[in-house]
């Protein structure tokens, strides 16, 4: 029996012109024009963006082809800038392809960024009805599912509060619940689930698998967490520099992806593409420098990371988190700064973060970095997240190797010693 197609992508290209800023609104265009007349910085230009007159063309996607079948759970993986988010935006009709054809069989519910599809002035309840109307559902159809949506989102206490007062975590919980329970044939999920707590992430993964198996819905899922890709997906596509380099078995795809990202670097320069889009992006990390000699890091050493940053806004009481992942991208442990720093708008500076490796075995590790503040409800508001922050290898110290096999030490997800953030 022939499988029914849900999505077909044929030779799709997406081209952008570097150094230009598209006009979003008349007000924005006037602001940009007036800033240019006055010789001031354009208030609508994103931080880190190079403004020039070269009009150089850049292909975010350069001729990709793949098919997705009804009821399939497809993982899309690749490094930052590979074209994953661009692919999802094309499928969600946020933007159109420059060349090629996209065939979609069914209605799409997508979560691309925190707050996508929500009106900030409306309450959580009102936004549920708004999203139902967008999908072509009647009020009676939404009524029949609204209690289930609210219960799943864990936001009942705040459901009649305008969503502009929600934390990023609450946004994601409600947005996912809406996408999972309202009528659609295709679900598209970007990395936004990373903002939720671990328990809710697992709940979402179980729900996506459930709607795929029981309801025959198609799921497209993008993540840097290979453990969740393994858990959810039955097939994967690997993207690199805007091209499909592999499609097929999940484990084989993950091996190819990790092999292409197996690079340790003393220094690293970050771009906007390296920063996760789902957070508020009020802090931009420009450069990372590891103060240690990366070829000589041993169990028990402190790894010192010097970070150059630029602030987008005035922010007080910022805390930092480092998450340590295995080569399989499974979270092993995390640590949080025991102090806070404050920054001023347009401030450029350097800070130092220190990772204590005393309970890490000799192995290769990946590091995820995030910066956040706490709102009045004690919820995290993320202002900067970089998934591929650093890669490092820890070597054995012979004097510590008295009968204990450090190579197989595995404590699961544990709390690492906290650290102090220092402004340099």
Automatic annotation (TrEMBL):
<feature type="domain" description="ABC transporter">
    <location>
        <begin position="46"/>
        <end position="266"/>
    </location>
</feature>
<dbReference type="GO" id="GO:0140359">
    <property type="term" value="F:ABC-type transporter activity"/>
</dbReference>
<dbReference type="GO" id="GO:0005524">
    <property type="term" value="F:ATP binding"/>
</dbReference>
<keyword id="KW-0813">Transport</keyword>
<dbReference type="InterPro" id="IPR027417">
    <property type="entry name" value="P-loop_NTPase"/>
</dbReference>
<dbReference type="InterPro" id="IPR003439">
    <property type="entry name" value="ABC_transporter-like_ATP-bd"/>
</dbReference>
<keyword id="KW-0547">Nucleotide-binding</keyword>
<dbReference type="GO" id="GO:0016887">
    <property type="term" value="F:ATP hydrolysis activity"/>
</dbReference>
<dbReference type="InterPro" id="IPR050683">
    <property type="entry name" value="Bact_Polysacc_Export_ATP-bd"/>
</dbReference>
<dbReference type="GO" id="GO:0016020">
    <property type="term" value="C:membrane"/>
</dbReference>
<protein>
    <submittedName>
        <fullName>Lipopolysaccharide transport system ATP-binding protein</fullName>
    </submittedName>
</protein>
<comment type="similarity">
    <text>Belongs to the ABC transporter superfamily.</text>
</comment>
<dbReference type="Pfam" id="PF00005">
    <property type="entry name" value="ABC_tran"/>
</dbReference>
<dbReference type="InterPro" id="IPR015860">
    <property type="entry name" value="ABC_transpr_TagH-like"/>
</dbReference>
<keyword id="KW-0067">ATP-binding</keyword>
<dbReference type="InterPro" id="IPR003593">
    <property type="entry name" value="AAA+_ATPase"/>
</dbReference>
